[in-house]
Amino acid sequence: MGAHVLIAEDDEGQAELIRRYLEHEGHRVTAVHDGRAAIDAARAAEPDLVILDLMLPRVDGLDVCRVLRAESDVPLLMLTARTTEDDLLLGLDLGADDYMTKPFSPRELMARARALLRRRVRAASPVHAIGDLLVDPLRHEVRQGGRPVECTPGEFQLLVAMAAEPERVFTRRQLLEHIHGFDRYITERTVDMHVMNLRKKLEPDPRRPVTLLTVYGVGYKLVDAAP
């Protein structure tokens, strides 16, 4: 069954191109061309995926991202002509799940959209417990020592993957497959950013992690920090 995808892109030609590709894969598409309309459409229709241009009139894409992430865990794929690392990290900090720079390959865009939609409809999994850390995929909740831990969708999916196999060492590319379902070198930085943010939320001292560990030269693993 197709998903409902919201495209927020001020370039109407670009929006129409993305629409055609999505509809070819059986999805229902709503396209809007400014940030205010994007917020209104997301609230009204509750889409399964939002493809969001960063440079939107009326309300820019970063502000749209802030609003949508405060109200929903809908997957957000950001598009932009900006190419600086600061823009990438800001988008991820605000809760975007993925980020593509223009010009982009429509086929790659579809691959990333499919990955985010698969994650959205993934079957419910049991609650994972690692020491006092609980990760509940069905309720989309993380708790540590009984207290709730707020996570972005990307951070949450990284935790789900690692919590399902505690002590396993994951490479960055393996984690990207769990989060995004595709392989591209530049996005390995995404994993590092998620790990850094999760350590701030989970570790007593993020500079000396005891739960989310780095295995140098390989990747990361999640362990029970209890003695």
From TrEMBL:
Domain annotation OmpR/PhoB-type: ranges: 125-224
One Pfam family per UniProt: Trans_reg_C
Occurrences of domain Response regulatory (ranges): 4-117
Annotated InterPro entries: CheY-like_superfamily, OmpR/PhoB-type_DNA-bd, Sig_transdc_resp-reg_C-effctor, Sig_transdc_resp-reg_receiver, WalR-like, WH-like_DNA-bd_sf
One function term, GO molecular function aspect: phosphorelay response regulator activity
The entry's DNA-binding region: 125-224
One GO CC annotation: protein-DNA complex
4-aspartylphosphate carried by residues: D53
Sorted UniProt keywords: DNA-binding, Phosphoprotein, Transcription, Transcription regulation, Two-component regulatory system
UniProt cross-references to CDD domains, sorted A to Z: REC_OmpR, trans_reg_C
Record-level GO BP terms: regulation of DNA-templated transcription
Superkingdom of this protein's organism: Bacteria
Protein name per its UniProtKB record: DNA-binding response OmpR family regulator
Lineage: Bacteria, Bacillati, Actinomycetota, Actinomycetes, Streptosporangiales
